[in-house]
Target: Putative E3 ubiquitin-protein ligase UBR7
Amino acid sequence: MAANKEESDPDDFLTNEEELEKALCVLAGSDPENCSYSRGYVKRQAVFACNTCTPNAAEPAGICLACANKCHDGHDIFELYTKRNFRCDCGNSKFQDFQCQLNTAKDEENVRNLYNHNFNGCYCTCDRPYPDTDDQDNDEMIQCVVCEDWFHSRHLGCTIVEPEELQEMVCEACMNKAPFLWMYAAHFAVPPAISVRQAEEEEEVDVEEGGEKNESSEPSQSGEPSTSVEHTKQEEVANRSSPCKRTHEQMTGSPGKAMTKTVACKLKELQARGLERPRQGAVFWPYSWRSELCTCTSCKRAYVAAEVQFLMDQSDTVLAYENKGLDEPFGQHPLMALTSSMDRVQQLEVIYGFNELTTSITAFLDRCVAEGKTVTVEAVHQFFEELRARKRRRTNAGYQ
Model:
């Protein structure tokens, strides 16, 4: 084990640590004790689905972190990462006779909740589960920031270069749902991926064919942008420079200058420049891209009509939510060091188990205090035996 650890790639260790940190932040940013229903449609929270209580695909339902821990202990649970503007369904009409243990005063249905096939444990355009035991490719999955579905990188309709540097992704279907985003993509998104070698070969061909093409690649005196390979490479460098370094506004989720009122329509100004990109495949954006969106009255109406008005809110991002989790002590827990060698599924299992253990121990001690009982060795042994019994029930339920 020691030899393997010494020979491991430091970059892989850092990647695992970053992934675990994000997983911790997903939990730390949500309340594990109190049902989130009373807070209304929460801007962003960790959401789960219970396949034991709501297996019908025609009636999807989602539950908050606290209900997943307390009301659905031992059930077959799907982890959905985070969802925006969601209200906990636990115990409403979709659960029939099942009652929420944390909050019984709930409406029959949360009409503003949005559901997709994720709530039935399926993802991507291929409609497959995750983890998928039949998938031999072990492909990375990436979440669209608009529909919040997860996609295999091979099903995004575009070539992905250096995925660890990619920040926010909008799938092709959501781009077409809000077609004005294609114009912003031409100016601010990561350019359609081509290899550096391919770009250099194309540039050499242009030079060999004659100086006319090379001269045409220079920016015009009027300041109009060029569509040459050289200009595309320059834009890519500008858009992707220091991808791992984030500004204070980006780290805190503060809108900064992004929310200042604009007079002229920025979208029309971009359209006047004439720069376009192919309208196909998913689009990857730097973290700062939302600050480039126009906020004039006409554009705001377009966002509402396309149901993407949340793009104007910098605090809507998963990054802002994760930063909130980083502020919590759990986000810096030494558990991270113990699970760095695990894959993501194992890491999440450990995290959820740790979170459940912490919650259960707290409840056990509170109950002893309330009943005036002394915490004896026998009581502790019985407590852990009950935990093991619940774990066995959960494991059995997962394989049924």
